[in-house]
Amino acid sequence: MYTQALFLSVLVAIAEARFGQEQIPIPAIASAPGGTSGEAQTLAGQSISTLLGAANPCAKLTQADLILSELGSGALEAAIGLVAAEQNFNNFVVDIPSICNDPTLPTSLPLRGITPLIDPGVVGSDIANALSNSSKITPLNAVGLSVAEVLVANGFSNFTAEDAAGNKVAASTLEVVSAVSIEVAPVSATPVAVNCGAAATTFVTVTKAAQSTAAAAVAQPSAAAASSAARPASSNAVTGVFTGFVASTIAGLDFGLCVPTMKFEPGLDGRSDTEFTFQAQDPLINKGQEEALNPAIIAKKICDQLTNVCNANAAAKAACTTAEGALGGKVASTASNWNTQLGFADALLNPDNAPQAGLVGHD
């Protein structure tokens, strides 16, 4: 009798230990900065249901995108925690979990290439959990791949792959190319890891020859050359027509490699065509930052990037801080005034030509 009671208590303890995983990332979400008053707490409450056993595994990725979109870059760690969190599953009904098999999720670049923790009772979970812990620091290659496919490509397939519509297949049936290698006429066999631009989590191993002076100049352009070069097009969901690098009209303000303008458009990143949000226009500034309802999130990102990546001068940084302190509300004139204060009065508020009835009435 005593042995049976002890065994039962152990089972209950194990069940309680595993069926509480949905609570682990919640405090970080609730305490994340950004957003309006109470918004982080609301998002935290919504996130619990995405980690329950009955939830579609793609739901938590969509929720993590929403957290980053609504709260801004200050909530990145909390959003990563949700992506990497273990989702419950009833191991009295099934013996393996379900992992999202939608290659478009998460949509936020900083969240891609991160894999989830797996119940330690699942065979092979040690591989999956090591991948999850490391991917939070160094994301895995996820270009064109779902989270399910990323796991398969990296050696773990003991799960069910489920898409956003609920369609399920065995992970072992997924066909994934696990590595990419490019050979460039080797003279010396020195492998070099190359970060492939916009896809921040993609790394290609290149065996390269000794580089000529001309080739080196192409690979590493000077700051002066980069500042005068045409800027890449916006990578938003709406096709961009960003016209390129321009200088501030205000004497003494040198924004280095960047154009610190702000736009105010409907339909960004999947929002409805009647919902207007703010976003930085320059893709170098905007890298890793979604659009936001709160202009303060975008203003802070712009000012931070002037130091982090733009090589702006002190006067430009000071002007940005001043403009940040004079922001208006969630209206078109806020973006317009921001651009004017920094010397870009002619900047379009809708450079992507997003379909709209016009900005009139949004102030």
Automatic annotation (TrEMBL):
Keywords, in A-Z order: Signal
Q: Where is the signal peptide?
A: 1-17
- UniProt keyword annotation of Signal present: yes
**What is the protein named?**
Uncharacterized protein
Native species: Hyaloscypha variabilis (strain UAMH 11265 / GT02V1 / F) (Meliniomyces variabilis)
